[in-house]
Amino acid sequence: MTTAPVDPMIGRLIDGRYQVRSRIARGGMATVYLATDLRLERRVAIKIMHGHLADDNTFKTRFVQEARSAARLAHPNVVNVFDQGQDADMAYLVMEYLPGITLRELLKDYKKLTPEQTVDIMDAVLAGLAAAHKAGIVHRDLKPENVLLADDGRIKLGDFGLARAASANTATGQALLGTIAYLSPELVTRGVADARSDIYAVGIMMYEMLTGEQPYVGEAPMAIAYQHANDQVPTPSSKNPAVPVELDELVLWATNRDPEARPNDAREMLERLREVEPGIRSSHRPLQTQATMVLPGGPMPVAAATAETRVLGAGMAPVAATATLEASDGDDTEALAKSAERRKRRGYWIIALVLLLTGLAAGTGWYFGAGPGALAPVPETAKLAPAAATAVLEKAGFTVEPAERNDPVIPEGQVSGTDPEAGEQAQRGSTVTLFVSLGPQILPVPEVRGAPSADARATLKDFTVVDPNVLQFSEDVAADTVIDVLDVDGKSVGAEYPELGELTLVVSAGPIPDVIALPSAEAEAALTQAGLKFAYLDPVFDNSGEIAEGSVIASEPTTEVVRQGDTINLTLSKGQDLVEVPDVVGKSMSEAKAELEEAEFVVSYSLPDLFLDLATVTSSDPPAGEKIVRGSTITIVGQLTL
């Protein structure tokens, strides 16, 4: 049984203040954790940007924008932002922690909500959104995932990651932002968003809450976007007859394809919602009577069908439409026949129009599904030869434009990538730029010798500094200081080197451990701890008496430059070499001298050498039988014999 990997952020202390406890959710740009603010002793939600996005200025700017946008709002229906900062390479955002669920999770459990529940939630959403619009902020990513339902009943709007200051027309300046199912027609067609784009998303959310499904579905995002741009959102009651007409009208008003026909901002829509709320809660619905037709042939009563529908436009003026069909006796038979003929002709026009629209839909479907407007993934061509990559792209339906760029990984002459990148969707027939590698850039190598190893690594950020460092022992260079920088061949690096090329730091490990006079076991332990090996030479006598027997009398490196893993030769002491003084008393001075020198003593005497053969030894110092160090001096005293 395998276990899930442990998130390395769990238990980490962010910026010396926020202790991460557990993970709450993970999104495309950041992960949200439950944390404890140790300074204020409270639980918070901390949002941490994904590490691979830290160098992307677009995402970092968007992340900081979320903090600034939310910090400008102080409203009970908007998630509070407490703090924002940077810890090492991590950008983070500290927010109010709300235990509970999202509106998306509620819809998954209950499919659809009652009108009363919908009104309650939309009242809170519109109130928070009205505060944002009043502050000049367009949310741009409204969806059920960003509506938080707390356990204590509070409803709050969160995730201002795509928010921007509103102007008359706020252009995104990039690909469509937000979730495709909630994008307004002007965002799809022109990439322009203002407060009315948020209102459109609110209308789609209301539709989904009342019916349990989104108004538009499709296999591809482009198909859904096409429907947003060209179709009018249907009334929720067409899917759920229990929806009151007042909510139908609100949805139609909010999702009008023309931004000018929608509420100007959330405050205007909120006021209308609160106007109709009492009628919805009392389950009051206008009576609708169906038209009744009576066939000719006798006295006929007048049958009337009246239905009143209020369509909310910019001025919210109700428009009354009344249709009355009257039938009388036989005098009106001719009029009825003419009316029937007109209806028949109108039916032909309707059929023709339906056929035309069907053809247009089929043509549009072909264009975006299999024709030139169809989207297709860009094939993977990295590391291929340019000719082979061009053939692959052209076979996939793209036009190829060659280009060159440096690449630190892909060898020169091979394809290093495309724009759009491999796997991204692009229209068939569009141009794909094919980049051929020029190999890595050749960069100047900064001088880091004499610097601490950590500083050297930071300075060499444009290269790949391998781990671990090579440790070299030195009497003259302080520990953890860079002695040299080696290239991939193990030689000192020159003034220039390829981008991301591998470099190795040679760092001082300090002096070789001093093991002289240490017992052999202690010497071995000291060298092993320093990462050195050891070997023993033949032991020697220490006639000085300073090194005890079995202790190190000599330590010699086996290489000129000593690095971890090298061997140190050790020589142990055998102690002092003691020899017994021979008995030379009674022998001639010359015989005594020869015998003592043969025993490796130094002989001292006072007679001239001319008389050595004529003199007899009378005493020696030290005397015979005493043990002394080999090589010591023995003084002999002689007497001439005539």
Automatic annotation (TrEMBL):
Residues 376-438, 506-574, 575-639 form the PASTA domain. Residues 404-424 are annotated as: Disordered. GO terms for molecular function: ATP binding; protein serine/threonine kinase activity. Its EC number is 2.7.11.1. The chain crosses the membrane at residues 348-369. It comes from the Bacteria. GO terms for biological process: negative regulation of fatty acid biosynthetic process. It holds the Pfam family Pkinase. Residues 18-280 form the Protein kinase domain. Signal peptide: none annotated. Keywords: ATP-binding, Kinase, Membrane, Nucleotide-binding, Serine/threonine-protein kinase, Transferase, Transmembrane, Transmembrane helix. PANTHER family: MITOGEN-ACTIVATED PROTEIN KINASE KINASE KINASE 20-RELATED, SERINE_THREONINE-PROTEIN KINASE YBDM-RELATED. This is non-specific serine/threonine protein kinase. The lineage of its organism: Bacteria, Bacillati, Actinomycetota, Actinomycetes, Micrococcales.
